[in-house]
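User: I want to check something. If I give you two sequences, will you return the structure for each one separately, not as a complex?

Assistant: Yes, each is folded on its own. Here is the first sequence with its structure:
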Amino acid sequence: MSIDPAASSLDRRAFLRNAGAGFGAVALDAMLADEGAASMANPLQPRQAHFTAKAKNVIFLFMSGGPSHVDLFDPKPDLLRLAGQPIPESFGTFKTRRAVAKNALMPPIRPFARRGKCGLEVSELLPHIGGLADELCLLRGCYGDSVTHPESVYMMNTGTILMGKPSLGSWAAYGLGTENQNMPAFVVMPDPGGWVKGGAPAWGNGFLPATYQGTLLRGGASPVLNLGTPEHISALQQQNTVGLINRLNRQNLPAGAEDSELAARIAAYELAFRMQAHAPEVVDLSKESAATRKMYGLDEAVTADFGRRCLMARRLVERGVRFVQLYCGDTNGWDGHSDVAGNHTKLCAQSDLPVAGLLRDLKARGLLESTLVIWGGEFGRMPMSEGSNGRDHNPYGFCMWMAGGGVKGGQVIGATDAVGLRAAEEKTHVHDIHATILHLLGLDHTRLTYRHNGRDDRLTDVYGDVIVKALA
């Protein structure tokens, strides 16, 4: 009997058909068609979390470039006492990529003050955020795996120093979908001064279906490029065009390929069409009250840009967008290799009031309980000076904070050593931070997996523990 060369490549469904399975194949096709239709009709439909959680949405305030923990949130009396001296030998040998271990220890650029009922010490550079100390859960023992910007940006966003893995926002969208089918599940607002070092892979979907990648949102009348309908095209014509394109695309969509690039493109066309009607309203801030504009600093030149994006973030989560990430700092951002005082003074002035305004606004609207707000960069900075008045990168010990969304505020978790060089107590690796963020969203980081290259891959790889102390 001759053998069809193509038979060896038949998949399971084709085998059932060709083997004459009859009604079994018909039933299988019907079930798969129903599943495929449901998936294609609503690929970002809200999904059941692993367990009940308070946080429904996330706003990640990413301080691009690496803010200095020892100058903002981690006061070290020994930096004042030992200022101008080399780091003591008791801290052991230490080398950075610029070999600044012999450089003198440098004191904090501004004094710290105790704020709130909890007495949290915060730099005078951040008076507005400091005024909300009782809302903050400050992680002082954070550490990562790389001393360079792109790798650390990928680490903080995707859980690995390697390019090409799914971002935290993509995992959240994959795990929970979105509550608003007229907007993306994951929105990113880069700093208009320049993209973060590492670029778009920081908010990419990696090996997850393309539907879950971050969607860039800009300010102004055109939040997404090429979103507006040409003047001579009616809404009905646009709808018919999108419908025709997607019907033709579906004819080339194999059964079981609901997670393919083609399926993602079909979903993207449909989402883009819906966004044409809804996205402009989301970014239209003209109806916000004068008090709200003042709260975010929209009428002040220094705070206006970041304030607009913070306000837009509130409007997005208010309308059901699952994950919003906005970047503060251009391509260099908080990267204070020289004149860290001037660098941080400028960026704190731009961001302090808008961030505090965001927290206050969320709380006033009853949204803070269900919205997790995260503040941090890719790493911190060294306690030693670089040159005469700068600080080099420090992934070995730095600070981040969280607020709202099931977090217990008014507390400090962890500590760096006496000069802020390394995480020393209750240390929290980036994997632990990611595990905690997913937990606050009701997702078990060990169960949120995607089959890739023969293994069930996940954001935290095989690591990560929830920071139980951070939970309310």
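And separately, the second sequence with its own structure:
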Amino acid sequence: MIKKVVVGLGNRSYPIWIGQDILPVLGQVLKEHDFPKQVAVISNPTVGQLYAPQVVESLTKSGLKVSVINIPDGEQYKTIETLTQIYDVLIERRFDRYTGLVALGGGVIGDITGFAAATYLRGIPFVQVPTTLLSQVDSSVGGKTGVNHAQGKNLIGAFYQPSHVHIDVNVLKSLSDRDFSSGVAEVVKYGIIRDKTFFEWLELHRDGLLHRDAELLVDAIMMSCQIKANVVENDEREQNLRAILNLGHTFGHAVETLSGYGVIKHGEAVSIGMVMAARTAHHLQICSQHDVNRILRLLEHFNLPVNPPEFSAAEYSAVMTHDKKVKDGQVRLVLNHGIGNAKLHHVDNLEELLDGLLN
């Protein structure tokens, strides 16, 4: 059974396929959609060892000419330097405008491959084959691509939509418990910002999801992708509504930056950030303590951290002022209004607010 979600963006629309054991049909799908016949699969040694042979075989059987480019594994390698390495190989192997890229990996691979596709020869098509839960429900959908800068996460990038997203839940069996839980944070986020019924569904099925029941995972991923697709269709370039997808991310990115990229996983940082957002919302009387507690309990059930690392309010504030949502020098935070709704709020005296929350 393959479930499908369509991201409707006119002539840039694309399908998301979600199912069990669907990697073998990737080549057939791309052939039917007239994807370029010359393909570079971009991955890392960890993921490539597990899934590249299966992907290459599928693509080759469908008549595509395939090269594999491996880049180092880890958030700390999501840099301009790694991007340049990809360009070097593409140029060396004489990849032209009738080339396609396949991102086989987690969020780092997807973001950097998408940015390479957006910028190589001014743009070539690419496909997302996400292999972590976090990338399946978040970074592979919506067209955000980019790399990190020393002063902040994802400060260099472009909006560039994939041609297809291919999600096989079987690959989640190889994730560590910590990586799996990291992805669940983004799933919980969708319930908080947009769908109270989905949040309640997660509360009901949390044990089955924690044990990686395949059918539950397909449903959770499909619902998450549908929520994100609905938001992206209404605000592709994050002028207003799409910002709600960043619940927990402003503080979470600061956690990642201060801790050093890769020390705290992205989903873990988002979990901490969502709790900080909920506590801020409670402070502003737009979220009840009961709802804050529900969010805390669900995140903790999935073994996610909820308390921030011990940096000062001044340190957090300094990093958060570099966030992409800053407008005219003023920090804006996504805050949940209870469960099932969220809005962007201007924040005055950020350091003072953080000092009160952290202490």
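Because they were folded independently, the notes below concern the second chain alone. DSSP finds 14 helices and eleven strands in the chain. Residues 214-234 form the longest helix (21 residues).
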